[in-house]
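Q: Hi! First time doing this. I have a protein sequence and I read that you can turn it into a structure. Is that right? Here it is:
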Amino acid sequence: MTKFAPVFFAALLATGCSMPPKPASSHNPPPVVSAPQSLSSFDSRVVQCRKELQVMQAYNVTVFEQYNQRFLRVNGQLEKYLEIRDKVGSEIDDIATPKYQYNVRRVCEEIRSTLMQLIIKEV
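A: Yes, that's right. Below is the predicted 3D structure, encoded as C-alpha coordinates:
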Protein backbone atom coordinates (compact mmCIF):
# COMPACT_ATOMS: atom_id res chain seq x y z
CA MET A 1 0.00 0.00 0.00
CA THR A 2 1.07 3.50 -0.62
CA LYS A 3 1.19 6.22 1.96
CA PHE A 4 -1.97 7.66 0.38
CA ALA A 5 -4.02 4.49 0.93
CA PRO A 6 -5.31 5.46 4.41
CA VAL A 7 -6.50 8.82 3.06
CA PHE A 8 -8.13 7.09 0.10
CA PHE A 9 -9.96 4.62 2.34
CA ALA A 10 -11.06 7.38 4.71
CA ALA A 11 -12.44 9.35 1.76
CA LEU A 12 -14.35 6.33 0.54
CA LEU A 13 -15.81 5.71 3.97
CA ALA A 14 -16.78 9.36 4.36
CA THR A 15 -18.57 9.47 1.00
CA GLY A 16 -20.18 6.06 1.33
CA CYS A 17 -18.60 4.73 -1.85
CA SER A 18 -17.63 1.11 -2.02
CA MET A 19 -14.34 -0.17 -3.31
CA PRO A 20 -14.12 -2.67 -6.17
CA PRO A 21 -12.90 -6.10 -5.06
CA LYS A 22 -9.14 -6.41 -4.84
CA PRO A 23 -7.73 -8.76 -7.47
CA ALA A 24 -6.23 -11.94 -6.08
CA SER A 25 -2.47 -12.02 -6.17
CA SER A 26 -0.06 -14.74 -5.24
CA HIS A 27 2.49 -12.08 -4.21
CA ASN A 28 0.61 -10.71 -1.21
CA PRO A 29 2.64 -10.88 2.01
CA PRO A 30 1.22 -13.00 4.82
CA PRO A 31 -0.80 -11.13 7.44
CA VAL A 32 1.04 -9.86 10.50
CA VAL A 33 0.20 -12.19 13.37
CA SER A 34 1.64 -10.11 16.21
CA ALA A 35 -0.93 -7.30 15.82
CA PRO A 36 -4.18 -8.51 14.29
CA GLN A 37 -6.57 -5.83 13.12
CA SER A 38 -9.31 -7.36 15.25
CA LEU A 39 -7.59 -6.11 18.39
CA SER A 40 -9.23 -3.12 19.96
CA SER A 41 -7.21 -0.06 20.86
CA PHE A 42 -7.27 -1.19 24.49
CA ASP A 43 -6.11 -4.70 23.60
CA SER A 44 -3.22 -3.42 21.53
CA ARG A 45 -2.18 -1.16 24.42
CA VAL A 46 -2.14 -4.19 26.74
CA VAL A 47 -0.01 -6.13 24.24
CA GLN A 48 2.47 -3.23 24.13
CA CYS A 49 2.40 -2.99 27.93
CA ARG A 50 3.37 -6.65 28.24
CA LYS A 51 6.26 -6.12 25.86
CA GLU A 52 7.50 -3.13 27.86
CA LEU A 53 7.14 -5.12 31.07
CA GLN A 54 9.37 -7.85 29.63
CA VAL A 55 11.97 -5.27 28.59
CA MET A 56 11.94 -3.95 32.17
CA GLN A 57 13.18 -7.34 33.35
CA ALA A 58 16.47 -6.75 31.50
CA TYR A 59 17.08 -3.53 33.42
CA ASN A 60 15.91 -4.35 36.95
CA VAL A 61 14.51 -7.74 37.97
CA THR A 62 13.20 -6.51 41.33
CA VAL A 63 11.26 -3.64 39.78
CA PHE A 64 10.03 -5.99 37.03
CA GLU A 65 8.68 -8.43 39.62
CA GLN A 66 6.82 -5.66 41.46
CA TYR A 67 5.17 -4.36 38.30
CA ASN A 68 4.53 -7.85 36.98
CA GLN A 69 2.57 -8.70 40.14
CA ARG A 70 0.55 -5.48 39.84
CA PHE A 71 -0.10 -6.06 36.15
CA LEU A 72 -1.18 -9.66 36.71
CA ARG A 73 -3.51 -8.57 39.54
CA VAL A 74 -5.34 -5.81 37.63
CA ASN A 75 -5.44 -7.79 34.38
CA GLY A 76 -6.78 -10.79 36.30
CA GLN A 77 -9.52 -8.62 37.81
CA LEU A 78 -10.51 -7.44 34.33
CA GLU A 79 -10.50 -10.99 32.95
CA LYS A 80 -12.63 -12.19 35.87
CA TYR A 81 -15.17 -9.45 35.16
CA LEU A 82 -15.18 -10.20 31.42
CA GLU A 83 -16.14 -13.82 32.23
CA ILE A 84 -19.40 -12.65 33.83
CA ARG A 85 -19.92 -9.51 31.76
CA ASP A 86 -22.70 -10.98 29.63
CA LYS A 87 -24.69 -11.80 32.78
CA VAL A 88 -24.94 -8.23 34.06
CA GLY A 89 -27.05 -5.38 32.79
CA SER A 90 -25.75 -2.59 30.62
CA GLU A 91 -25.92 -0.14 33.54
CA ILE A 92 -23.37 -2.18 35.47
CA ASP A 93 -21.25 -2.80 32.39
CA ASP A 94 -21.18 0.90 31.50
CA ILE A 95 -19.50 1.56 34.85
CA ALA A 96 -17.48 -1.61 35.43
CA THR A 97 -15.72 -2.05 32.07
CA PRO A 98 -14.19 1.45 31.98
CA LYS A 99 -13.14 1.13 35.62
CA TYR A 100 -11.31 -2.16 35.06
CA GLN A 101 -9.74 -0.86 31.84
CA TYR A 102 -8.64 2.30 33.64
CA ASN A 103 -6.87 0.22 36.30
CA VAL A 104 -4.96 -1.71 33.63
CA ARG A 105 -4.08 1.47 31.71
CA ARG A 106 -2.87 3.16 34.89
CA VAL A 107 -0.48 0.31 35.70
CA CYS A 108 0.69 0.26 32.08
CA GLU A 109 1.45 3.99 32.17
CA GLU A 110 3.47 3.47 35.35
CA ILE A 111 5.32 0.60 33.67
CA ARG A 112 6.11 2.79 30.65
CA SER A 113 7.28 5.67 32.85
CA THR A 114 9.47 3.47 35.05
CA LEU A 115 10.94 1.68 32.05
CA MET A 116 11.82 5.03 30.48
CA GLN A 117 13.58 6.06 33.71
CA LEU A 118 15.49 2.77 33.86
CA ILE A 119 16.62 3.11 30.26
CA ILE A 120 17.68 6.72 30.71
CA LYS A 121 19.72 5.83 33.82
CA GLU A 122 21.77 3.49 31.63
CA VAL A 123 22.78 6.31 29.27
